[in-house]
Each structure stands twice: as structure tokens, then as C-alpha cells.
Design a protein that fits this description.
Layout: H1 25-51, H2 59-63, H3 65-77, H4 93-102, H5 144-153, E1 159-164, H6 171-183, E2 187-193, H7 202-205, H8 211-217, E3 221-226, H9 230-241, E4 247-252, H10 274-283, H11 287-294, H12 316-329, H13 333-339
Parallel strand pairs: 1-2, 2-4, 3-4
Helix pairs in contact: 1-3, 1-10, 1-11, 10-11
């Protein structure tokens, strides 16, 4: 791992026992060190994607590091779990790649090619394509039904599904919730509720909606807490494990806690900018990572494409959104109403 500018060999491979819902001082210190190490690594290697001009979704995997560190320690301490970090927010793929490295499935320097062409590190996890990846996620919100099936196939074990307030808006999650409750499946949802989705802040565009209340209404046992309070988070995960049937642990936090320029912002949903990443890494004392990031050169496309703007490149969804806005800007309100879809 010496070619990776952050020393991942410092990762502490502790074990945790869910029958003991409190952390010792030593366990907490080790978890805190692992959390900071992995968050620093995620900021660094996702920002190499930004430097090359591609996306990368830094905020989601950065946010959920505390949960993942706890699960990793639990998996190491018992055979009673399916030891896979199933994640219904597939764009949090940086989590899967980092854990693949920590588990020895691929070299750490591979992470510096995050989402680069032909690197086999795509924006969503693909089983059989990237070393160490144990599932294919599909797009947002498609994992819970799959995890229900895994739970049915492993009735004596606990299965976890990392979730989010965004993925929980998907309709198939509602169906998965009803099935999990009806069948008493031993599925534990660990949900990052950071009030940020690609569309903005749910508290503003879906006023009155509550992930916790929705799941409770479907019959799922719900535990809520502060995702950045390690003692509370661990206690809730232990309680979920020791409670029969489906349980949702909902962890409230701001997006990208501790990242100056991103905390609480919807911009944290996609990849961290090089400027913000450099400031973060400099503050954390990662000089080698700073130097590496400054040396990343974006590839140049020499081809000319007919019928498109070769001077500007952007995600398909952004180009489409801009095009729709441009069309609607030239319409009066009456025209918009007249031409809007009707039932």
C-alpha cells in the first residue's frame, strides 16, 4: 500500500460483539481512528476523479463511514452475519472499493484511478467486474428487495442494507418493506438521513415527509439517532441486531460533516471539488496526497463531435435539465399549463 499517499496499513482490525452494546475506550478510539483514516482516503481518491473531469459522489460514502467501520468490526467478530456491505445507494461505490482494498482484494494504488476509463472502477458496483465487489446495485433504491432474498436464503443470519433518505423514496422500497415485515425477515437497514438528494433537500421539496415515519407506518421497527455520535450509533446497531425482524437504524447528520465548503450542502452529493479536497487534505496534514492530487492531469478529448457543444462537457442529466429550462424560459405561464401532461 506504500504507493497510495495515505497509509491504509494504519487501519485497525478490531472485533465487536453485539451482545455488548457499549464501546470500551480502546474500541471507541480505534473506531474513531479508522473513521478518520477512511474519510480522508475517500476525499482523496474521489477527488482524483474530479481532477480528471468525471463525477464521483464523495458525500454518500464519506457520510456512512462510521456505520461501515462498525459493521466491518461486527463481521470480523461473528459468523452470524452475511458479511457484505449491501448498499441501496449504489453511487456510494467508493465504500465498496475502499473495503475491497482493506480486505486485500485489490491494491490501494488502484483507487487513484477512481472512475477512470478502463480502470474497472465504475460509478456503481458491478459483481464480477471489480475485484472484491460482492454485488451489483443497479441504480438508486434497487437493493432492498434483493437483500430480502438474501435474508430468505440465510434465515439464521443477520443481513444489513445500507440505505439513504433518497433511496427510500423509491417505490420498490415500499414493497420491500411490506414483504420484510410480513415475513419477519432479519434485515437491518442502516439509513443515512442527511436531508440531501440529487434533487435538493427533501425537507424543502417534500415537506412533511419523514423516512422514519414512513418505515414505521409500514411496520418496520425504527431506531433514530445522531450518526456522528459513535456511542449512540453503535448502541442502536446492536439493538437492531438483537431485535427480531426488520429494523431501520436512521442516522441523522449533515451531508459531509467536517468538510469546510461542503458540510450541509447539496454539492456534497456528487464529487468533491479539487479546491475543497486540497484544503481538506492540507488541513489534515496529508502532504503526499496533496502533491499527488495537484499532479493529476485531465485527459484531453481530441475528437470533434457533430451536433454537440465540444466546448462544454457535463452529465447527461444536467444537459437534459439545462435544455428543458431553456425551452421553458421562452414560454409564458399559460403556455406551460396548456402544454403540461394531463391525466
Amino acid at each position: 500500500m506504500s504507493n497510495f499517499p495515505i497509509d491504509l496499513s494504519a487501519y485497525q482490525r478490531i472485533t465487536l460483539d453485539p451482545s455488548v452494546p457499549t464501546l470500551t475506550a480502546e474500541q471507541k478510539a480505534a473506531l474513531q481512528a479508522n473513521i478518520q483514516l477512511c474519510r480522508d482516503a475517500i476525499v482523496f481518491f474521489t477527488s482524483t476523479g474530479a481532477a480528471r473531469g468525471v463525477g464521483g459522489h464523495t458525500g454518500g460514502p464519506y457520510d456512512t463511514v462510521p456505520e461501515v467501520m462498525i459493521l466491518d468490526a461486527l463481521f470480523r467478530g461473528s459468523e452470524n452475519f452475511v458479511p457484505t456491505f449491501f448498499d441501496e445507494a449504489g453511487h456510494r461505490v467508493a465504500t465498496q472499493y475502499l473495503m475491497s482494498v482493506l480486505n486485500g482484494d485489490m491494491p490501494a494504488e488502484k483507487l487513484t484511478q477512481y472512475r477512470a476509463a478502463h480502470s474497472h472502477l465504475p460509478g456503481h458496483p458491478e459483481l464480477g467486474f471489480t475485484p472484491g465487489v460482492k454485488f451489483s446495485s443497479g441504480r438508486l433504491g434497487h437493493m432492498w428487495p434483493y437483500v430480502n432474498g438474501v435474508a430468505m436464503a440465510n434465515p439464521s443470519k443477520t443481513v444489513f442494507c445500507l440505505g439513504s433518505d433518497g433511496s427510500q423514496q423509491e417505490g420498490d422500497d415500499a414493497e420491500a418493506a411490506r414483504l420484510a415485515v410480513a415475513q419477519g425477515l432479519n434485515v437491518k437497514l442502516i439509513i443515512d438521513d442527511n436531508d440531501v438528494t440529487i434533487a435538493g433537500h427533501p425537507s424543502k421539496y417534500l415537506k412533511g415527509c419523514s423516512t422514519a415515519k414512513t418505515l414505521a407506518g409500514q411496520g418496520v421497527t425504527v431506531l433514530e439517532g445522531d450518526g456522528e455520535d459513535l456511542d449512540s450509533l453503535y448502541a442502536n446497531i446492536c439493538k437492531a441486531i438483537n431485535t427480531p425482524g426488520p429494523v431501520a437504524v436512521i442516522n441523522h447528520r449533515k451531508m459531509c460533516p467536517g468538510i469546510v465548503g461542503l458540510e450541509g450542502s447539496t454539492h456534497g452529493h456528487d464529487v468533491v471539488s479539487v479546491k475543497v479536497a486540497l484544503e481538506y487534505l492540507e488541513t489534515r496534514g496529508h502532504t503526499a496526497a496533496v502533491d499527488f492530487l495537484k499532479g493529476v492531469v485531465a485527459p484531453k478529448m481530441t475528437d470533434t463531435f457533430l451536433g454537440s457543444d465540444n466546448a462544454k462537457w457535463d452529465a447527461n442529466r444536467n444537459v437534459f435539465g439545462d435544455a428543458v429550462v431553456e425551452v421553458m424560459k421562452g414560454m409564458s405561464e399559460a403556455e406551460r399549463v396548456e402544454k403540461s401532461p394531463r391525466d
